[in-house]
Design brief:
- The complex is a heterodimer of chains A (151) and B (665).
- Chain A has 151 residues and is an all-alpha fold.
- Chain A starts with a helix and ends with a helix.
- In chain A, helix 2 crosses helix 3 and helix 3 crosses helix 4.
- About 9% of the residues of chain A have low confidence.
- Helices cover 57% and strands 0% of the residues of chain A.
- By secondary structure, chain B is of the alpha+beta class.
- Chain B has 23 helices and 9 strands.
- In chain B, the strands form 2 sheets. In chain B, strands 2-3-4-5-6 form a 5-stranded antiparallel sheet, with no helix packed on it. Chain B has a 4-stranded antiparallel sheet with strand order 1-9-8-7.
- The chains are: A mainly alpha (151), B alpha+beta (665).
């Protein structure tokens, strides 16, 4: 329920239980079709919740799939197809956002986190070197330790 | 009447929780034994009240009492009995009740099994648990009351969402919540330790079984959810990097890190402060997951704004608990004494790398999940962060972890011998690579990268076996001694080996499916057949059928290999009558570890039907690996050191002295 809830809601909204690419949409050239499939997996179905147009059965997704194939048959490169779709539908359509000022922190996050983690590890290790280890004893435990040592 | 009693029990539970959240913690401050003794009894009482309340809600669902709004909205008299039970948590209000029930259950378990905990620690832990209970009972009573009545009572319910009418729903949320909420115990232990200002190896030993239990359930819950999505949603995907999935995956990543850092803390008393922080973060991520899913903020920032009462309430809970715990941490952590030293190349060092990678991976998933929300709120720009982003970043981060996993257990504590570990593992690595090549040759096709992926998976599996092999000294000592050594290894060693091997099996499954799966989308008419995965699939035609609360069109397929029929499968398109909602019921056939997945599409104009067939080689490895991981967790839990090893009350005064008696390092 919990994890799927929204996905499921979307499915309900998207209704008809058929999925993704239909045989009549496919290109006859397998190489071009394969490119179209790869590109489709990177494009968002705009009316769905987090689904690519490759997975979605919404009408808009179908239109986009046809559009991608049209551009590919017209000889566009993958980059050109994406540019074309973005120029019509905006950056929102890309499931893998492009690197830009707006997505700087998104793409930079893993690098920054690794650096921050690494640096703090080194700083911490340096600061720690030479200091006494083990837990501090409470007064009660000190007393007991002293008592033990005296024996 | 019974409904009102259930409602009242929940109100009483609130009162109990409030008392419980104040009295023991004050008692712990003052050293008042009587006040601290309220904690265990109160926690059990709280559980009893919440359980009764939950039982009443379940009863309302089972007898289909449509005068209760929650039942009316989410049930139907014709729903099969099992879905009347599971329907209790198949909706917002009910799922929050389940959350609360499990929280109270864990508190009660700590009260019962924590007999050997120091009194102040136990009082503090149970009070912190009660704080969380108060927040969630208030949330339920004020914004999500499942006991609201309808007058007049409707004659028939609106039915449970058809996609949720599945055995997967009965199992998935309870498992997931046992994991999510189980981490609350770690959180409470961390906060209690900070309140106390004192923390030692014994603390880690008390926390570890709870972490292990929560992690095990969460692993099962995620795997179950993934498999459920795979067969229920009908397009053969098993992981979508959906924000809702990420919400459960982040606590898993942090929890995995916690499991390992608590190990270092227990064995070597190092990484104390980090472990406490991680315990806080893990449960914070669970809380945040609940917020993300429950507030509606994920569907759209606007959905959140249109009905903010629930969202704002959970946001407040989130701020109070996460903010409060982190502030407490900031104030108190510097007071905690530092732990043992270790060389960079050591088991501790390997576990630190494990923690670094898991935490960064978790942070990356978090950034990817929240980035579009934050960006839209701040600038109004809409972007999407989907599977291609996560596959790339998460994949790159996890790859090195997979390689170092087998090294960890082979390195010694304090100062390890990397060369020695390398010498022990190069045979394993070689074997893994050769096996991957053979595998690749048999399945043929797919990118060359697949060989590396397969080798990584096999390396994990063989590396786990090698760990046990070397520990037992097989080949070096006589067989009977080796056998005795092997059987004498602690259960947790087997648990770790199983969990690591399980990870390898999952990796193997993921790589095999992504690279070798084939998809066939074809139009079929009755009597036509098509090839997939070396099988020939013959379409025998469609037949209508009726279930208890749905009608369906079922397609029958005969599966042949080498001319002989080996199996048959039904694949259906269903219409649930109460909601007029269609679903697909994919036909899935299992051959060994691989599956043939048949899903029906639209009917074509000339009387055929679109059929999607996937051959998913070794796909069962993905969930099988998770099961092995969880099994490893259970095996570790049965380790006697965790069962009875927590220092007993009698030994308490002597125990903290022990570390100080060790020779200086």
């Amino acid at each position: 329920m919990i994890r799927r809830f929204l996905l499921v809601l979307t499915l309900i909204l998207a209704a008809a239980p058929a999925f993704a690419v239909n045989p009549d949409e496919m290109l006859s050239d397998p190489a071009l079709e394969a490119r179209a499939r790869t590109l489709s997996a990177e494009l968002r179905c705009m009316v769905c919740q987090n689904q690519s147009i490759d997975d979605s059965n919404a009408d808009l997704a179908k239109d986009l799939r046809l559009l991608v194939r049209e551009r590919i048959t017209d000889g566009d490169s993958d980059e050109q197809v994406l540019n074309y779709i973005v120029s019509r539908y905006g950056e929102f359509v890309l499931l893998k956002p492009r690197f830009s000022l707006r997505t700087l922190l998104l793409w930079g996050a893993p690098v920054l986190l690794i650096l921050a983690g690494g640096v703090s590890l080194i700083v911490f290790a340096r600061k720690r070197a030479g200091k006494p280890t083990g837990s501090k004893l409470t007064a009660e435990e000190q007393a007991r330790l002293a008592e033990l040592l005296e024996k | 009447m019974i409904i009102e009693i259930g409602h009242y029990a929940l109100v009483l539970a609130l009162a109990t929780a409030i008392v419980l959240s104040l009295v023991p913690v004050i008692g712990a401050r003052r050293g008042d034994q009587a006040m601290m003794d309220v904690a265990p009894l109160g926690s059990v009482l709280l559980f009893a009240l919440v359980a009764f309340s939950f039982g009443v809600l379940t009863y309302a669902h089972v007898v289909s009492d449509f005068s209760v709004q929650n039942v009316w909205e989410n049930s139907h008299s014709l729903v099969p009995l099992i879905y009347k039970y599971s329907g209790v948590w198949g909706n917002h209000e009910g799922s929050m009740m389940l959350w609360l029930l499990i929280l109270a259950l864990f508190s009660a378990l700590v009260a019962i099994f924590g007999r050997n905990l120091p009194d102040t620690l136990k009082a503090n832990v149970l009070s912190v648990q009660a704080w969380i209970s108060v927040a969630f009972i208030l949330f339920i009573l004020l914004t999500s009351n499942p006991f609201t009545r309808l007058d007049p009572a409707p004659a028939e319910g609106k039915d449970l969402n058809p996609v949720l009418q599945d055995i997967g729903l009965a199992i998935h949320p309870p498992l997931l919540y046992l994991g999510y909420v189980g981490f609350s115990v770690c959180f409470s232990f961390a906060v209690a330790a900070l309140l106390d200002g004192r923390i030692d190896a014994a603390w880690a030993r008390w926390v570890r079984p709870w972490t292990l239990a929560a992690w095990t359930f969460l692993t099962l819950g995620i795997a179950m959810g993934s498999y459920w999505a795979y067969y229920e949603l009908g397009w053969g995907g098993w992981w979508f990097w959906d924000p809702v999935e990420n919400a459960s995956f982040m606590p898993w990543l942090a929890g995995t890190a916690l499991l390992h850092s608590a190990l270092v803390m227990e064995k070597r008393e190092a990484l104390k402060i980090w472990t406490v922080l991680l315990a806080i973060l893990t449960f914070s991520l669970s809380l945040m997951g609940t917020f993300l899913v429950r507030s509606g903020v994920l569907t759209s920032v606007h959905a959140f704004a249109s009905d903010p009462s629930r969202g704002v309430f959970i946001l407040c809970i989130l701020l109070i608990f996460i903010g409060g715990a982190l502030s407490l941490f900031a104030f108190r952590a510097p007071l905690l004494s530092a732990g043992g030293l270790f060389a960079p190349i050591s088991r501790e060092g390997a576990l630190v790398v494990n923690n670094l990678i898991l935490t960064v991976a978790c942070g990356t998933v978090l950034t990817g999940t929240l980035y579009p929300l934050v960006l839209e709120t701040l600038t109004g720009d809409k972007i999407s962060v989907g599977p291609p982003f996560f596959n790339l970043t998460f994949g790159l981060l996890m790859a090195p972890l997979l390689i170092i996993v087998p090294f960890g257990p082979l390195l010694a504590w304090k100062r390890g011998d990397l060369l020695g570990a390398l010498q022990r593992l190069y045979v394993v690595a070689g074997l893994a690579f050769v096996a991957a090549l053979v595998f690749f040759y048999i399945e043929h096709g797919g990118p060359v990268m697949a060989v590396i992926g397969l080798a990584a998976g096999l390396f994990l599996i063989l590396g786990a076996a090698a760990d046990l092999w070397y520990r037992a000294g097989i080949g070096k000592v006589k067989a009977d001694i080796a056998w005795r050594r092997l059987t004498g290894l602690p259960r947790s060693a087997f648990g770790a080996a199983l969990a690591h091997a399980g990870l390898g099996v999952t990796v193997l499954g993921i790589v095999a499916v992504t690279t070798f799966q084939t998809e066939h989308v074809v139009e079929m008419k009755q009597g036509q057949s098509t090839e997939a995965g070396g099988y020939s699939i013959l379409f025998d035609g469609m037949r209508p059928a009726t279930g208890p609360n749905y009608t369906e069109d079922r397609g029958h397929f005969s599966i042949r290999r080498g001319g002989a029929e080996v199996a048959d499968v039904w694949s259906a398109k269903r219409l649930y009558t109460a909601r007029q909602m269609p679903t697909t019921e994919a036909g899935i056939l299992t051959f060994g570890l691989s599956q043939l997945y048949v899903s029906l599409g639209d009917a074509t104009k000339d009387g055929g039907i679109v059929v999607r067939i996937w051959w998913k080689p070794f796909i069962l490895c993905i969930w099988g690996g998770a099961l092995i991981m969880a099994f490893g967790g259970f095996v570790s839990l049965t380790d006697r050191r965790l069962r009875v090893g927590a220092p007993s009350r009698k030994a308490k005064p002597a125990k903290p002295v022990a570390p100080a008696m060790e020779p200086a390092e």
